[in-house]
Design a protein that fits this description.
By secondary structure, the chain is an alpha/beta fold. The chain has a single domain (2-276), classed as LigB-like (Protocatechuate 4,5-dioxygenase, Chain B, 3-Layer(aba) Sandwich). Helices cover 41% and strands 22% of the residues. The strands form two sheets. Strands 2, 3, 4, 7, 8, 9, 10 and 11 form an eight-stranded mixed sheet that branches. It has a three-stranded mixed sheet with strand order 1-5-6, covered by helices on one side. The longest helix has 16 residues, at 192-207.
Amino acid sequence: MEGRLHLKRQPAVSGLFYPSVPGTLRSQVEGFLRNARMEPGPGVTGLVCPHAGYVYSGSVAGMAYASAPSGIRSVVVLAPCHRYPVRTVSVFGGESYVTPLGEAAADRDLVEHLSGMGHGWTIQAHSAEHAEEVQIPFIQVKWPGAAVTPVLMGTIDPAFCRGFARDLHAAIGGDQDILVVASSDLSHYHPLAEANAMDGILMDDFRRRDPSALSRHVGEGSSEACGAGPILTLLYLSELRHPGGYEAEIVGYSTSASASGDAGAVVGYMAGTVGRRPCA
């Protein structure tokens, strides 16, 4: 196990989902953040971000990250599994996550806290997973030096998501400088009008802060989100982090048709924020 702690997870989708040249990558991410024209929300504690190739979803991801506050020191990335099955969760336990922009150190305190609660590390699950990797360059550009805790989720069971949210809340404590990102795309490969309708259902459930409805609609197929588990966990966690109430907002939405021009079978992308309600 000791040797695994020093593992530096190397890029798996560099040059495929995002540029492999450091200067090009930094310039592209900075452009997404700048062109979002969003004001950072000081009370934002969580985001929903897409995880497709940057040419498709980078501008929407930029809207989410641009809406987050400065001064974040650690980011938890909740992502679904696409390549290797995980029954519950896998908490990355290595030394760092590497991208062309350098290394993002793992948050050892947070990892150890979650590990002590029985949430282990399936090393193979992280080796090629893009859903967490594509978030890291945005984190490195927005918050240089921030630590990361990538967590892969293999379930969308509401009871598990609520329980994991409780454990995550216990690990985070009262730290408002820890941000949680739920990595998710929305509907997959439907005609544009159908995708817009399905995505509208999920975004309305999110905006209304209704994880029960969101889970039900995804389960019955009236909406889709490959990262439904991460989104549910983020909503449950927000209830705990903001006992006086919290807001959930949609700050961006698009589909792959905007980049490809193909409206026959599109993928939906949402940028969302959660955070404390402003004082009246």
